[in-house]
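Q: Hi! Curious about what histidine kinase looks like structurally. Here's the sequence.
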Amino acid sequence: MFGDKLNIIQNLTGVNSSKLNYYLEVQRSNEQIKIQINRLEIIHQLIKDINIDMSFSDIVERVYNKLPQAVPCCFLGLAMAKANQLVMTAAIPGNSNLGQPVPRTSVLWQAYAKCQRLLYNLNYREELVCKLNEGRDPLENWGLRSVAIVPLMVRNEVIGLLIVGYDQEFAYDNSELTFIQQLADQLAICIENARLYKEVSKGKQEWEETFKAVPDPIFLIDKNFSVLRHNQRHISLTTEKPKENPKCYELLWKRSIPCEYCTLDEVHMTGKAVYRQIQNDGVILDAFYYPMVDPNGEIYAVILHVKDVTEKVKMEAQLVNSAKLVAIGEMAAGVAHELNSPMTVMIGTAQMMQRDMGKDDLRFEWLDDIIGCGMRCKKIIQNLLSFSRQGQFSLTETNVNEQVDKVLSLIHYQINRNNIAINKDLDQDIPVIMANGHQLQQVLINLLLNARDALEENLGEKRITISTSVAQHQGEKCVIISVDDNGQGIDQENINKIFNPFYTSKEASKGTGLGLSVSLGIAQSHGGTIHCDSQLGIGSTFKFILPIK
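A: Let's find out. The predicted structure is below.
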């Protein structure tokens, strides 16, 4: 009886009704929470499923398979911005607009241009959707009654649109639109990552193809002499199959320990590129070392570019020999005259000894003349043969002053017969250098003969001074051989051309234009150079600069 009265009172006061509304509200909230959780799970799963190497079509297909679990969906599309156009890039189901620019009258352009999300319904409500532009919108051809359009944003820039559609009206409200916005944000990140990945992959592929296409061997070597990478072009340098990350001295130079004067150490110490010419098992190599610097300015590795120049050096050697033959031809007359006088003395003295001299004759001193002149002839002939002989290109300890004396003995007559005085100023404390003596002689002969030719038209005193000294050049201690003349000099307009092959100011019968070009090549092969100072009408000074190593 009491319970019945209590129920009647609760019904009259609305207590039961409030409890029912409360439970219904809790139930609705739980359902909303479950929907949100389900949507988050879908977004999370989609992001896991999408790979950065997927195409746009694959991404749309992967999203479309999951999306109906979260929102009503029978259409999903991507419109991407390309060169001031909006192009339908991918869609499920496909339609005739794929790959075509979206007309600027479309509501899609409104969402893109204003960077705002929009709801579109065929029978629209003002507060939910935008009005159609003039004319027929392409969306109306897709059989959709409700469409949610959300911009894809990357760094505050619209890169495209995500389009979700359904074949019933008013399928989306702000809740669904918010979820689609969250999905679009994640897709934008995935699309941008895929774009960046493709750019990086393309750049990496182009670099690797370029790296492999270079015909010369290239090596990346770390501080521990380990070869980190190479372009598989070193087969001609070594026939051994390299192990993983071999040491450079093992792979290239067939050594068990690092080289005594390793160029890599020099690169790490100076931080500058270095060039060396190296002889290895009969092969002549140009080696270029380039430092690799990290963002902190520290050198972490060195690129070694090796070029086989054996054939080039052989051709240069042939060119040098050709120039030698020209010089020998000019020296032939001088050698004949140079040998004529001492030989006459030798023959005349010998005849007089045969006719008049006895063992106790006081004229026994004439033997000294015979011996002296004979030795002089022998020296001249030996130097001439040595100069004309095909020399080896190995470097040995060389005394520069001795090379100057040998050259002067060869061409002394050619210069003196033109009434030219030769002055020597040789530093007797000059250090020995690593050089090829025959090639040094070739350079000196070319410089002296050029000085002789420059004095040909002088009417007054004719003078050539050859000197040796030690001085600093570009921060390096060097031996300098100077050939100075007081000839006609060189015009400043032509001074930069004199080392060009086949350039000459002489008559066609007096020069080939190869002497200074060949001489500069020899100097550079020794790590040195040739420098010219000249004033028109005053004279010229050529400095043959060789590093002391």
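A: A fun detail: The CA atoms of residues 316 and 399 lie 24 Å apart.
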